């Protein structure tokens, strides 16, 4: 971008920036949010966690079995509240929560948990036009952008119902936070597969979401063509010249007329009905010697010190969420199943890394404290997004009941007393040189 500098005290014209504009390989600007590797901002105010009711009697809620509604008559247990503003390392350090530590990720260990038309004046020839038509994707069809709204949230129009989470701005912001959380968990890396970065020419990002991962990979690998695939055209328009996005369903037939050197699938938990078929499609569409990498979760909340019990609303909520997601055939914990599926598909040199991702800034370790804060923020923001397609149509909750549940869970999660985490799996493998597309 170019132009004169505005007078002191004046802001640049808002048209200078487009929605979800990427300026550099390290910084993502949107009309509402700036995300960097170290800071999360929201225009005009700090990004603050949800703050539900926090007062009530001191007696905890009684436990109930999975599938039964939570007892909403119980009062909210008063807990110490962690107030967070702009997420910067210094802020996190100031919390100084001396609680049990989580081991730092050890990339040497495997199989263990450690821790959017104007006519073109230069019209193409008929043959070129036909070729363009052949390549025309669902990305430009109006039906793809006719987003349905349910329970006040906007959802995907393409393959309606295939994905249980919204695609509105709130959800896109949450996904960007998840991106930061995952990168932080991996020590700043986007992927772990030992790809030949100098010779990779084609990359596919499955379920690209906001497109931030594809964009960053495009910056990292400028000689590679990077394709981001998703159900919704919500990605930015300003992207590196080697990055493009397509609207498609990865569970439909893959129609690429070329192979990929690297395929990455990240955070597809609760999104895929047939995981073995997806893994098989990656194998069939990789070039010989190419690499695949899956980064995904087991969304069950865990604790190593007994601080999360059956008496907590959070425990009951998570158990019900897992049950509901499984009932609609959207696996909420694909992580531990990835390695055997990758091996069964025919990949070699398969490696697995498992990380503990804390919920909240309770670890002593500064890096994990930051990961935990990012995770807590995305969970608090995402409670509604996670729940609407599961708790109302599947488990029989009303919207009003859900709001009460959310209040209680927010109170619990914002307490420093719960030392909980879930597991994050990274599994990669290589296609043998003698197999697949040539």
UniProtKB/TrEMBL annotation:
Pfam families: Methyltransf_23. One of its GO terms (molecular function) is methyltransferase activity. Keywords: Methyltransferase, Transferase. One of its GO terms (biological process) is methylation. Residues 51-67 have a biased composition (Low complexity). Gene3D superfamilies: Vaccinia Virus protein VP39 (3.40.50.150). Residues 45-71 are annotated as: Disordered. CDD domains: AdoMet_MTases (cd02440). Belongs to the methyltransferase superfamily. LaeA methyltransferase family. This is Related to methyltransferase. It comes from Cephalotrichum gorgonifer.
